[in-house]
Amino acid sequence: MASLSDVRALTISDENAASTTRIAAAARPTAAFTLANTTHANGTARNVTVTTTGTGDNAKTVTVVGTDVFGDSLTEVITSTGSAETVAGSSLFLTITSATCSAQYAANVSVGSGSVCAQAVEGANRVRIKGFAVVSGGTAGDVEFINGSPESGTTLFKSRTIGTANDTVDRTVPSQGVLFDSGATIKYTVDVADNITVFYA
After folding, report:
1. 108 exposure class (CB count in 10 Å sphere: 0-12, 13-18, 19+)
2. Sign of CA dihedral 63, 78, 152, 195
3. pLDDT per residue as tens digits for the range 31-71
4. Listed residues 114, 139, 157: the one ending a domain
5. Same domain, 106 and 125
C-alpha cells in the first residue's frame, strides 16, 4: 500500500478594497466608538485606519484593542495629524474589541480596514512550508512568509508577484521545506496577490 502524504494546503484570498468606515462609521465620540464590525471583510487580519475630516486634531489618538493573527491580545495607538487625512496603523488585527479616542475630534472621524492583510497557516503551531502558488493582482509587490506574528516575527523569505493580473508564481521548496517554529504567517497587500495557496506539513 502506498504511503499517504502529510502535506496540507491552505488557500488565502482577500481582494476586498480598503474601507475607511468598516470598523466604525464617521462620528465624534468623546471616548469609545460604536463598532459597526469587529472583523475585516474576508476574515483575514488587516491593519486599521483612522480617517479625520477636521484639521484641528494633531496628536489626538485612537487606541485600538483586539487580537492578532494568532488570536492573542493586540493593542495599537494610531496618532492623527493636523490634516484631514487617513492614517494607517501597522499592526494587523484579526478582531477588534474596542476603539477609543483620547479626546473628542474637531470633526467627524471614522475607523476602517486598511489594505495590508495577513493570515496564519496553522495558528501558532510549528509548520514547514513545502511550496506555494501565488496568483498576482494588478500590482507588483512582495508576499512575506513570516515566522511568528507580523508584529514581532521574522520574515524568512519573500515572493515577488509579477504585477500582471492572474499570472501565477508557483514554487516548490526543496528537501524538508522551510521551518516556521513560531507559526507561519502570510502577509501581503490587496491587489498584490489575488490568491495564495500554501502547501505545508
Report:
1. middle
2. positive
3. 999 999 999 988 899 999 999 999 989 999 999 999 999 99
4. 114
5. no
Tens digits of per-residue pLDDT, 173-201? 988 999 999 999 999 999 999 999 999 99
Overall size of the chain counted in residues = 201
* Neighbour count for residue 36 (Cβ, 10 Å): 14
Task: Give CA–CA dist 92/74, Å, rounded.
Answer: 9
Q: Which domain holds residue 152?
A: 8-13+119-200
Count of the separate structural domains present in the chain: 2
Q: What number is the average pLDDT over the span 144-160? A: 97
At residue 17, the 3 state secondary structure works out as: coil
Amino acid at 58: N
Rounded distance, CA 57 to CA 109, Å?
10
- Report which of 179, 29, 27 is spatially closest to residue 110, judged by C-alpha positions: 27
Domain with residue 140: its CATH number is 2.60.120
Which pTM was predicted?
A: 0.93
